[in-house]
Design goal:
The complex is a heterodimer of chains A (about 110) and B (about 110).
Chain A lengths: L8 E5 L4 E6 L7 E8 L6 E6 L4 E2 L4 E4 L5 E6 L8 E9 L13 E6 L1
Chain B lengths: L3 E4 L2 E4 L5 E7 L5 E7 L5 E9 L2 E4 L6 E3 L9 E3 L8 E8 L9 E2 L3 E5 L1
Parallel strand pairs in B: 2-11
Antiparallel strand pairs in B: 1-3, 3-8, 4-5, 4-9, 5-6, 7-8, 9-10, 9-11
The chains are: A mainly beta (about 110), B mainly beta (about 110).
Chain lengths: ~110, ~110
């Protein structure tokens, strides 16, 4: 599975959009981009995933560049409860058993 | 649905003791996983299972054993506990391994070996 690179930390004001970048320059054609977050040592929580089209759900939006070498997770109106470690993960959608390789992630701190 | 449940929440073991971490899911998922997370680090896969009766090693299987006799349950066994096994253990489950899908995680078991 392709490796990802994320900034170690980011800050965001409450009520503003949080834009979390992720580089995955070695991604291959059948690999999905996943985002998970982990709030204060709880179990990781799935946020969103995509293959090549932009995706949106009730939690966030995922923007994937046309060449698929990078993506951005957007939390449209960040709240204090969005303070967490955010993991960008690239995983094969083929016959893989579904292993997720977690890196260091980005610590997002939302300020009042 | 309760989702993925894990017991116990906390446990302190002495070196050399053994224990079983329990994991149960009620979503009829065929895939189940065990991860460990050391302080300040990402999760590492210990073992996984693609269905009842089928298990395989992940990245860090040494010192652990698993079994999968039912779809719902995936216990993790620690034999001869060592301080290096002090960690937070997360169980997860998901649908079929092909295509895009999400993993659902339990709340974790915090284990200290002294």
């Amino acid at each position: 599975d392709a490796k990802t690179t994320q900034p170690p930390s980011m800050d965001c004001a409450e009520g503003r959009a949080a834009n979390l970048p992720c580089n995955h320059s070695t991604i291959s054609g059948n690999e999905y981009v996943y985002w998970y977050r982990q709030i204060h040592s709880q179990g990781p929580q799935y946020i969103i995933h995509g293959l090549k089209n932009n995706e949106t759900n009730e939690m966030a939006s995922l923007i994937i560049t046309e060449d698929r070498k990078s993506s951005t997770l957007i939390l449209p109106h960040a709240t204090l409860r969005d303070t967490a470690v955010y993991y960008c993960i690239v995983r094969s959608g083929g016959t893989s058993y579904g292993k997720l390789t977690f890196g260091q992630g980005t610590i997002l701190t939302v300020h009042p | 649905n309760a989702g993925v449940t894990q017991t116990p929440k906390f446990r302190i073991l002495k070196i050399g003791q053994s224990m079983t971490l329990q994991c149960t899911q009620d979503m009829n998922h065929n895939y189940m996983y065990w991860y460990r997370q050391d302080p300040g680090m990402g999760l590492k896969l210990i073992y996984y299972s693609v269905g009842a009766g089928i298990t395989d090693k992940g990245e860090v299987p040494n010192g652990y054993n698993v079994s999968r006799s039912t779809t719902e349950d995936f216990p993790l066994r620690l034999e001869l506990a060592a301080p290096s096994q002090t960690s937070v253990y997360f169980c997860a489950s998901s649908y079929s391994g092909q295509g895009g899908y999400e993993q659902y995680f339990g709340p974790g078991t915090r284990l200290t070996v002294t």
